[in-house]
From TrEMBL:
Keyword Zinc-finger appears in the UniProt entry: no
Top-level lineage group: Bacteria
GO cellular component labels: membrane protein complex; plasma membrane
Pfam families hit by this protein: ABC_tran (PF00005)
Any GO MF annotation of the entry: ATP binding
ABC transporter domain residues: 4-227
Similarity annotation: Belongs to the ABC transporter superfamily. Macrolide exporter (TC 3.A.1.122) family.
EC number, UniProt record: 3.6.3.-
UniProt cross-references to InterPro entries, sorted A to Z: AAA+_ATPase, ABC_transporter-like_ATP-bd, ABC_transporter-like_CS, ABC_transpr_LolD-like, MacB-like_ATP-bd, P-loop_NTPase
Name assigned to this protein: Macrolide export ATP-binding/permease protein MacB
Length: 228
């Protein structure tokens, strides 16, 4: 059973008198434990697809199943729960609270999930150890380098043991050396059993994934799996 399954997914935006079809019938399956890049030029629909996979938006038409649960028909409360428990987000801009320590930033999803403060701290520490930041737990974002901030964001994404790690241009704000370090970390997390879906327009970033789904004009143009 696939972890992610989309069937004939459409997303249409109405702009004045015209309809913009951001996605035009995307069907695909992603299995648990896969490392997939979704790639395409600006305006291809890849960000729209990521928002649907991440339950940040709902499709205009079609079906989306996550963990065999039909997400396309869920209400806002159910979607919020899925976002917090099933999906770990990593964004290009890190999205960290500037006045909070690395540890507190990582604890945030657990606060929303109602986890006790002792358990929160333990789980957040464990997540920071996974991304090799145990020496920086008390530091605030402005005391960290860009790469360290992204590691905090990845630890925060991991802290709920989500089904999917969903990364949107995760190296976009980093220099190339730091970008390589972050991609090496993703590879390690994948080897540890995490399912990773990476959205990027950069071929060298997509090359780290084991499978690349190319999106163009709102449709799957090609779907390539790398030989093991």
């Amino acid at each position: 059973m696939p972890l992610i399954e989309t069937r004939d997914l459409w997303k249409t935006y109405v702009m004045g008198s015209e309809e913009i079809h951001a996605l035009r019938g995307v069907s695909m399956e992603i299995q648990r434990g896969e490392y997939v890049a979704i790639m395409g030029p600006s305006g291809s629909g890849k960000s729209t697809l990521m928002n649907l996979i991440g339950c940040l938006d709902t499709p205009s038409k079609g079906t989306y199943l996550l963990n065999n649960k039909e997400v396309s028909s869920m209400d806002d409360d159910e979607l919020a729960r899925i976002r917090n428990e099933e999906i770990g987000f990593v964004f290009q801009t890190f999205n960290l609270l500037p006045r909070a320590s690395a540890l507190h930033n990582v604890e945030l999803p657990l606060v929303y999930a109602g986890v006790s403060s002792h358990d929160r701290a333990e789980r957040a520490k464990a997540a920071l150890i996974k991304v090799e930041l145990e020496q920086r737990m008390g530091h605030k974002p402005n005391e960290l380098s860009g790469g360290q901030r992204q590691r905090v964001a990845i630890a925060r994404a991991l802290v709920n043991n989500p089904s999917i790690l969903l990364a949107d241009e995760p190296t976009g704000n980093l220099d190339s050396k730091t970008g390589v370090e972050i991609m090496t970390l993703f590879e390690r997390l994948h080897q540890a059993g995490n399912t990773i879906v990476l959205v990027t327009h950069e071929p060298d970033v997509a090359a780290h994934a084991h499978r690349v789904i190319h999106i163009r004009d709102g449709q799957v143009e090609k779907d390539v799996t790398r030989a093991a």
